[in-house]
Amino acid sequence: MITQWMMADIEQLRDQGLYRRLRVMSSPQGREVIVDGKRALNFCSNNYLGLADDPHIVDAAAGAMREYGFGAGASRLVSGHMPPHQELEADIAKLKSASSCLVFNSGYAANCGIIPALYGRRDIIFSDKLNHASIVDGAMLSRAEFKRYPHADMQALEEGLKKEGPYRRRLIVTDSVFSMDGDRAPLGEIVALARRYDAAVMVDEAHGFGVLGPHGGGLIEELDLGKHIDIQMGTLSKAAGCAGGYVCGAEALKMSLVNYARSFIYTTAMPPALAVAARCAVRMIHDAHYGGQRRRTLKENADYVRQGLKAMGWDTMHSSTCIIPILIKDPGAAMAMSDQLLEKGIFIQAIRPPTVPKDSARLRITVMATHTRSELDHLLSSMKSLG
Ligand SMILES: *Cc1c(COP(=O)(O)O)cnc(C)c1O
Q1: What is the pTM of this model?
Q2: Which long-range contacts (CB under 8 A, 24 or more apart) does 18-21 make?
Q3: Which of 29, 44, 132 maximizes ligand 1 atoms within 8 Å of its Cβ, making it the mutation to test the pocket?
């Protein structure tokens, strides 16, 4: 019976405080949610700008469903490629000032498709230790040699790049904003090393897109490095409030991926209504008035919470964005705190290994542009009562 070894394994997870279960959200993904039947302020959503239930986006999707139906019916290369896909890609490329854009069905699918499409057995990939699991999985699928350097350690990266080897191509890949730590990658230094040692650079902007840069183009735009980053990947599932992944770069990159990325080729196209909704979100992000205002409010909210937590003595690690970890270390303790906070009407998930390194379990707070000052104060006073 397979249930026997499964249950034995699950018991072990429970003993270690590592067992995970699903919670039901019976409301839109707003600042306030109903979680397992209880009303709570939401501090664990990636819906940073509040676009996930924005009425403009909902209307755009509803209109598109009436025009195109729901399912795309086939993969993009067979008969599923429609004007909404084309227009979404054009608008992302415009926002990113890139020559081309290709959309995947998720950020996960993008990373699992891009890396093996371009790199293989004769190549080497340098990857930050804290990069997202989808980058690790993409690199594994590629069968290239996979070297992980300690988080943001440029000396270690340079040592690795210096070593001669029989490699055909070299790639450095990094998150721009680290999803569990909320700090920024040293992109300028990575670009300089890549030039010196003839490597390509791939950046995952899952948590930068929509949030950073004057037009929401991400950390790459904030640092004005667009011309130097060969593969600019991101998602439409976080700040854009929709679902999907994108990659921007040279026209040749798009042509290669259309021909070789298996997670693009062997899957049904994104539903056209989703592409229309995502395009609407991208345009709102790009808009200086709408997107710019939300980005400013988001930054103010995040700075307010981070400063408040630090003043109480909590360890917010190296966070400099709207992702604010509170380091607890022990997974059981982090879980207990998450439960206590929910009792007080504050929803914050405990993040435990293997999502984060051993002994670094944490509460991971994500702030949204739509949170009000009094909601942020409620969060801070609840954290105070725990401390
Ligand atoms: C969330 C995330 C992804 C996956 O994106 P989805 O669109 O949710 O599949 C990829 N990379 C990073 C860094 C992420 O945080």
Answers
A1: 0.97
A2: 18/331, 18/352, 18/353, 20/352
A3: 132
